[in-house]
Amino acid sequence: MRVSRRHIIQYIIGVMIIVFLGFYKLPYYIYSPGSADSLSPIVEVDNGFTSEGDMHLVTVSGMQATPLQLIWAKIRPFHEVMPLEDVRPEGISDEDYMHAQFQMMESSQESSTVVAYEAADKGISIEFNGVYVVSVIEGMPAEGKLEMGDRIVGIDENQVKEADDLITYISDKNSDDVVEIEFVRDDKELYADIKLETLQDADGQIGIGIQLVTDRIVEVDPDVHFASGEIGGPSAGLMFALEIYDQLTEEDLTRGYQVIGTGEIDYDGTVHSIGGIDKKVVAADQEGGDIFFAHHNQGAEDSNYNVAKAAAEEIDTNMIIVPVDTFNDALSYLENLDPKEE
C-alpha cells in the first residue's frame, strides 16, 4: 500500500497530539485519594509490643497535570485541581519543595516521638540547638542573606532555641523594622541585618520569608526507628504518636481495629488541621478502615472532622469518624473501646 505524504503528516500530527495530551505538563496540580499504609513496617520501637489491629497513616496523591489528567480530574469525585503556584510558591524549586516536605516529615516524627514517650512515661531527653532554614522564598527579605541549611541561633542578641522563639519575637515587630539574625553556616558564626515585610500569603503576618524547623536532639530509651521512604509532610504526626505509644505499652491500643487518621501534632500533643481530608477518608475506606481520626478544631464549622464526616456520608462508609483536638483525645477513645469481635 502506498503511503502518501499527506498520510505521513497526519500520522505525525496525530502522534504529536497524543504526546501533548498525555505528557505535556500544565501549570496545574491534581490531588486525589492516595493510600492508607500500615505503620508497623514504618515505625519500630526496639523490643516493642505488637497488636492485633493496625495503625495507619493516610496520604493524598499529587501530580502536575497533563491535559488528559486534567480532563479526567474535572469529572472524577474527590479529585481537586489547583494552580501550580498555589501548591509550590513561586521561587521554590522542585528540589527545595521536596526537601521542605521531608524536613517536615522528620519534624513530625520527632514531635510524635516526644508526645508518645512522655505519655508512656519512658526515657526521653531533649536538647534545643536553634532552628534550621528549610527554604528561602524568592523575592523576600531573607533572599541572598540566608540559605537552606543555615541554623539560626539568635535574633537581636536574644537566643533562639526553637522556632517559636523566633516567630514570637518577630510577631511583636512592624513591617520595615530591621532585625539582626545570628546564624551558623559551615561551622562559621555569621550575622545578617534583615528588614521585615508583610507576608502576602500568610494573612498579613510579618516575617523575613523563610520556612524553618526547630533543631532538636531527642534521645529516647528504648530506641525508635522510622522508614517512611518517599512520604513527606507533617500530617502523619498523630498516627506516628499512637503507633509509638502502642509499641511502648503492653496493652493493645488498637483493640483489633484498623485505626486510620491524620493530623499534624505539636510537641505538647496538640493536633492541627491538614489539607485533603476528604480524599484521605476515601483512601482510608478503600483500605478497610474501622476508625478515622480527624481534627475537630474546637468544633469549627469548617473543621477537618466536619469535612471528613461529610465525605464519609457521601461514600456511605461504615468507618467511624472520630473528632480529636489532642493526642489524649485519640488515646482516650481507643482505651475505652471494646475489643473488636471476630
Query: Uncertain spans, ≥5 residues at pLDDT below 50?
Result: none
Helical segment tally?
9
Highest-level CATH class of the largest domain: Alpha Beta
By secondary-structure content and strand pairing, the structural class works out as alpha+beta
- What is the CATH topology of the largest domain? Ribosomal Protein S5, domain 2
- In N-to-C order, the SSE pattern is HEEEHEHHEEEHEEEEEEHEEEHEHEH
State the helicity in percent bands: 25-40%
Number of strands: 18
Report on this model:
The protein is of the alpha+beta class and 342 residues long. The chain has 2 domains: 26-87 and 98-122 and 222-335, 2-Layer Sandwich (Ribosomal Protein S5, domain 2); 125-217, PDZ domain (Pdz3 Domain, Roll), CATH 2.30.42. It contains 9 helices and 18 strands. The strands form 5 sheets. Strands 4-1-3-14-17-18 form a 6-stranded mixed sheet, with helices on both faces. Strands 5, 6, 7, 8, 9 and 12 form a 6-stranded antiparallel sheet that branches. The longest helix has 26 residues, at 94-119. The protein is globular and about 80 Å long. The protein starts with a helix and ends in a 7-residue tail after the last helix. The model has no long low-confidence stretch (mean pLDDT 89).
